[in-house]
Amino acid sequence: MGDPREPPEGTPEGGSNDDEFQSVVFDESFVKAARIQELSAQERLAGAFGRATRMRGWGWFGSLPRQAVALLLLVAIAFAAAVYFGVSSPRGQVAAPSGAQLTAAVTPLSPSGTVGAVSDAAHPFAALPAGYADGAAGFGLPSASSTAHFSAADVQRALDALQHYLVASELNPAVLTANETGLVRELITAGELAQFDDSVNAPRDDQHHDATGWMVRFDPGQIALASDTVKVAGSARVAESDPNTLELTADDTLVYALRPAGTTSDPSVSLYAVRRAVRIDIDRADLDAGRVRVVDSDVQAGPTNCGAVQSDYLQPILATAAGVRSSTPPAVNPTDHARPAWQSCGALGPITG
Q1: Which UniProt keywords are given for this protein, alphabetically ordered (predicted)?
Q2: Which of 60-74, 92-106, 198-212 has the highest mean pLDDT?
Q3: Of 294, 290, 291, 282, nearest in space to 149 by CA
Q4: Are 342 and 207 in contact (CB under 8 A)?
């Protein structure tokens, strides 16, 4: 009797009794993993696909190796995250102008006599009277106390923001003589950034776009600091302009020790005085962000020639070993309407405490 596993006609010539595929088990997992699936009888009768098989999964996407699919998903997620954070990040973001905008006045103070150098360049502030302190210690900020609508903690945060702004805009050497503006910009409220950028990029004496209204700065090609120390005598006050806004005012006299930029054979050091009175508004949103709105900035600075343009940089008269004599302030004609009323010049008096 023949082997029941053999076909009725016998084993084909050259054939074998061993089925070469008998070790392959087409179990359920193997079938489910197949990328090509045969249509059901109902689907073939309906003729919906026009073919006997279809791709399983997501069409051509489902035919990709799993590693490739995972890589594509990771790339897509990374791209979406980059777009999201690029759009939502506040860095460099400029909001539309809002709220009170800066009004600035910069007045040169002309010396009435000869501008002389300090007698001891190693100790340039030795002749100053008592009442000045080094840097931020001279700001004279008050102790924080509650107001009608703000707690003492809120007032302290506002005073901290004011101090950060004053340090950046009046004391930082990078701002004073290295054309650094970002340190001040990052402290300005979003609604004033457009005005700030315009003031820095295209400064002009129109009471709103003076770079020197936002910060004290000197032309680094002409002026260098003889000392990083700045002597300060000032005071500050806190009030409310409305139930949601704190109004802070700071009135500082700052004395800088300056010398010509670069190498020079003249070691003369000059003192330069700046009185700077600023009004700062801080609402609750800016309080949380640690930013300030600079509303008013009045600057008097000298010794400076009356005709000097100071919208971009303050323009000190530097002493030389021989001394420099400046012209006296010109007479002001009140009937001359061709000259803006805010463009005035004064006579520099002695620097006192």
Answers
A1: Membrane, Transmembrane, Transmembrane helix
A2: 198-212
A3: 282
A4: yes
Calpha distance 249→279 (Å, rounded): 4
Two structure tokens written together for 247: 């109004």
pTM of structure:
0.71
Amino acid letter at 270? S
Residue 6 is classified by DSSP as S
Task: For residues 176 and 185, give the distance between their C-alpha atoms in angstroms, rounded to a whole number.
Answer: 14
Instruction: Parse the chain into domains and list their residue ranges.
Output: 35-88, 103-331+342-348
Percent of the chain that is helix, strand, coil (3-state, to 5): 25, 25, 50
10-38 exposure pattern, b = at least 16 Cβ within 10 A, e = fewer? eeeeeeeeeeeeeeeeeeeeeeeeeeeee
More confident residue, 267 or 61: 267
Name, of 6-15, 36-45, 170-179, 343-352, the range with top average pLDDT: 170-179
CA nearest neighbour of 328 among 347, 343, 350: 347
Q: What are phi and psi of 82, to 5 degrees?
A: -65, -40
| Separation between Cα atoms, residue 172 and residue 257, nearest integer Å | 14
CA dist 280 and 250 (Å) reads 8
CA distance 149 to 242: 9
